């Protein structure tokens, strides 16, 4: 399958629209698959109170759109928190996994820790706690017939750079955890880590790729407005045998009070045009990265 045909769009890119409208605008871009955003503070497309009725409504909207779902991007709380409500976390995980399976998605994606670089207890203890929680979640995902992936390097979170992400991976390996890794090229760049080197080092761990532009210290630039060399990254991914999907995940805002404010009229059209330009630039980079035959 060619690289452009593996390019999808996250509903987080359309965080400013209700789910039904977001799916309409995504389908109009010509992509055939999505990541479904279920991140409080970023995207309201999946209700936090995810009861049976809500799951049925979301799955119905997805089915009506005709778009495939690659993953559900969710959050069950700060996995490095030492005194979390275990029962509430388990219940929320179960609901998200039920949604993931019912939507026909490949995996549920979880973040690696709180929205804070500093550890809650200590770096080592926090990493151990995150790895244990992810390992348990991976077993639960397997029971539902889906996979568990982690965005192990996220510039805003505890596991914000390559060093901590690698340390988390080592702990997951020691536990024999069934957990894949989501590579977000923008977060790697924002952290100041070398993207091609990270891809080479992570290799077969990489289960999915999020695409957005960035500069050091800023993970949220539109495609073509930052320092990410996408053609080089695509070549590096090809070199490690990566054959999974790619998703444009380009929110307007994240983790601020008005991040999910609904946009209409001219603003809706403007943001759809931005997404279309970004996808076009990514397709060009994918084509440029292809080896000559």
Automatic annotation (TrEMBL):
Organism of provenance: Agrococcus carbonis
Keywords: Carbohydrate metabolism, Isomerase
One function term, GO molecular function aspect: isomerase activity
InterPro entries: IolE/XylAMocC-like (IPR050312), Xyl_isomerase-like_sf (IPR036237), Xyl_isomerase-like_TIM-brl (IPR013022)
Domain of life: Bacteria
Name of the protein in its database record: Sugar phosphate isomerase/epimerase
One of the Pfam families matching this protein, by short name: AP_endonuc_2
Domain Xylose isomerase-like TIM barrel: 26-258
Species classification: Bacteria, Bacillati, Actinomycetota, Actinomycetes, Micrococcales
């Amino acid at each position: 399958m060619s690289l452009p045909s593996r390019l999808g769009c996250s509903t987080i890119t359309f965080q400013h629209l209700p789910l039904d409208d977001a799916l309409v605008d995504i389908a109009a871009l010509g992509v055939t698959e999505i990541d479904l955003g279920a991140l409080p503070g970023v995207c309201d497309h999946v209700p936090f109170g995810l009861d049976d009725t809500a799951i049925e409504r979301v799955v119905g909207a997805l089915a009506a759109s005709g778009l495939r779902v690659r993953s559900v991007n969710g959050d069950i709380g700060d996995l490095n928190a030492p005194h979390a409500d275990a029962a509430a976390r388990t219940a929320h995980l179960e609901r998200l996994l039920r949604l993931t399976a019912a939507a026909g998605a490949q995996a549920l994606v979880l973040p690696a820790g709180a929205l804070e670089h500093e550890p809650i207890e200590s770096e080592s203890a926090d990493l151990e706690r995150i790895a244990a929680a992810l390992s348990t979640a991976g077993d639960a995902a397997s029971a539902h017939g889906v996979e568990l992936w982690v965005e192990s390097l996220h510039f805003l979170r505890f596991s914000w750079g390559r060093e901590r992400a690698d340390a988390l991976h080592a702990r997951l390996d020691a536990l024999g955890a069934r957990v894949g890794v989501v590579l977000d090229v923008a977060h790697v760049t924002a952290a100041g880590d070398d993207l091609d080197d990270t891809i080479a080092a992570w290799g077969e761990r990489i289960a999915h790729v999020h695409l957005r532009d960035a500069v050091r210290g800023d993970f949220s630039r539109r495609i073509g407005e930052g320092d990410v060399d996408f053609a080089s990254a695509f070549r590096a991914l090809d070199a490690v045998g990566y054959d999974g999907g790619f998703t444009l995940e380009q929110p307007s805002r994240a983790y601020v009070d008005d991040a999910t404010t609904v946009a209409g009229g001219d603003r809706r059209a403007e943001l759809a045009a931005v997404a279309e330009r970004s996808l076009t630039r990514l397709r060009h980079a994918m084509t440029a990265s292809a080896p000559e035959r």
